[in-house]
Design brief:
- By secondary structure, this protein is mostly helical.
- The chain has one domain.
- It contains 21 helices and no strands.
- Helix 17 runs antiparallel to helix 18.
- The longest helix has 35 residues.
- It comes from Caballeronia glathei.
- InterPro entries: SCFA_transpt_AtoE (IPR006160).
- This is Serine--pyruvate aminotransferase.
- Keywords: Aminotransferase, Membrane, Pyruvate, Transferase, Transmembrane, Transmembrane helix.
């Protein structure tokens, strides 16, 4: 007679976790197309919504707004690509690579992988979102080379840890409201005052959920790791070899080769960049914005790579990871143009604001932001669309302005877990299909949705 052993509570719990995540992974793999195809579908959906609900929805206005938005975003697109490329060059430097390998060498189990990835990536992302993206993807690859771990789970964990970036020092919404004269400082334009970072990213209602999300998702990801038989490991064979046909042999002693390997070019650029930062600092006009961030990343990367040719090679490797972004940004710029040009964004935002009170406006701002973020994934562009409606509402009903603004930023953290816009460079660097990763980050979306909402509601 066969004796059937009763499963333990822990085994049942793990089975349920695997079943939930397995179903989400299956759903995303079967239903979610390539991000470029998805952006085309989202464009069509926005056009239909505009035709039914927007005040300026005639054909001429829609196509004109789409065209203007697609090309208006090109400067921002290049800025974002440069942030990723310069961040990649830092993470690609031998010193940083040795540090990542040293950290990865300490990992023997999936649990230890999560315990390492979440704090390291979240700190990097809190400092700068571009650095967090690159460090997360490369650290995941280094760990996966050494440990039997599900690679999609690991990449999804690093992306989930990165999600706190809009609550950190590189939050475009917080930085713009703290920057005098910034084009997106809508608070200063309306009130004549700026909002210091002490009232936004360093305020308890932002810091508390940021720390809680990292700790909670680290624990949840440990519990979500697939069973040994279901693991899909990292494969070196899937990584494109670095065969640059234009690369010059490093052992040649020609004049060109000596110039490439000389640190003189690096020192010249460092002098120029540091000189500019010094002038700005001395004149008290220094502002940590996108361009300054790119410059700092460039200078740090040059210093770490040491020679011009080493830095150029690192950027060439980074360029292979940014190709898909060249298609993504114009498509979302077109969506942004339609949303703002037809008035659809204002219709969505005003619908939520109409039912708000001084106590609940931040929460309604957060909820409306969740929807708009799925269509406008750029925090800066998003604030340009939603800020002009939630900010006057906050001033008119005397609601907390800083909390209302950060409600928009915190929703960016949440919706990014379902919006593939920022996941594209992560999966490109890691070398994995985005659909498997999004199955896991859907869980992050659900959890962080609740955590940030509770913080906006209850944390002072």
């Amino acid at each position: 007679m066969e004796v059937r052993q009763t499963p333990t509570v822990d085994e049942v719990s793990q089975s349920r976790h695997r079943g939930l995540v397995g179903a989400l992974v299956y759903m995303f793999e079967r239903l979610m197309p390539d991000p470029f195809v998805l952006s085309i579908g989202l464009t069509a959906v926005v056009i239909l919504l505009s035709l039914f609900f927007a005040p300026n929805s005639n054909f001429d206005h829609i196509v004109t707004s789409w065209y203007k938005g697609a090309f208006a975003i090109l400067a921002f697109a290049l800025q974002m690509i440069l942030i990723l490329a310069t961040g990649f060059a830092i993470a690609d430097a031998p010193l940083v690579q040795r540090a990542l390998r040293a950290l990865a060498s300490r990992v023997q189990t999936p649990t230890k992988a999560a315990l390492l990835v979440f704090p390291v990536v979240s700190i990097a992302a809190w400092i700068n979102w571009g650095l967090g993206l690159v460090v997360g993807a490369l650290l995941a690859r280094e760990i996966a080379k050494r440990v039997k771990v599900d690679f999609a789970w690991l990449v999804a964990g690093s992306y989930s840890a990165w999600s706190v970036c809009n609550s950190g020092l590189s939050s475009s919404i917080a930085l713009s409201q703290a920057s005098h004269g910034n084009a997106l400082n809508l608070v200063e334009k309306a009130t004549g005052h700026v909002i210091p970072l002490s009232e936004t990213i360093f305020a308890p209602f932002v810091l508390v959920p940021t720390i809680a999300v990292v700790a909670l998702m680290m624990f949840i990801f440990i519990r979500m790791h697939p069973a040994s038989a279901e693991i899909t490991q990292f494969s070196e064979a899937e990584v494109v070899p670095d065969n640059d046909p234009h690369a010059r042999a490093s052992n040649t002693n020609s004049f060109a080769s000596r110039m490439e390997r000389s640190p003189i070019g690096t020192l010249f650029l460092l002098a120029m960049g540091l000189g500019y930062l010094g002038v700005q600092w001395r004149s008290k006009e220094f502002e940590l914005d996108i361009n300054t961030t790119i410059l700092i990343f460039l200078l740090v990367g040059l210093a770490l790579q040491k020679t011009p040719i080493a830095y150029a090679d690192a950027i060439r490797r980074a360029a292979r990871q940014t190709g898909s972004m060249l298609l993504q940004y114009p498509m979302y710029g077109g969506i942004m143009g339609i949303m703002s040009g037809t008035g659809l964004a204002s219709v969505i935002a005003k619908t939520f604001v109409a039912v708000a009170t001084p106590t609940t406006l931040a929460l309604w701002s957060y909820l409306s932001s969740l929807i708009i973020t799925l269509l406008i994934p750029s925090a800066g562009g998003h604030w340009a669309v939603q800020g002009p409606f939630v900010l006057p509402a906050a001033l008119s009903i005397h609601a907390p302005v800083a909390r209302t603004a950060m409600g928009v930023a915190m929703a960016e953290n949440v919706s990014n877990m379902l919006q593939p816009f920022w996941a594209v460079p992560v999966v490109a660097i890691a070398g994995i299909r985005i659909q498997r990763v999004m199955g896991y980050t859907a869980v992050t979306f659900i959890v962080t949705l609740i955590v940030y909402a509770v913080a906006l509601w209850l944390v002072p």
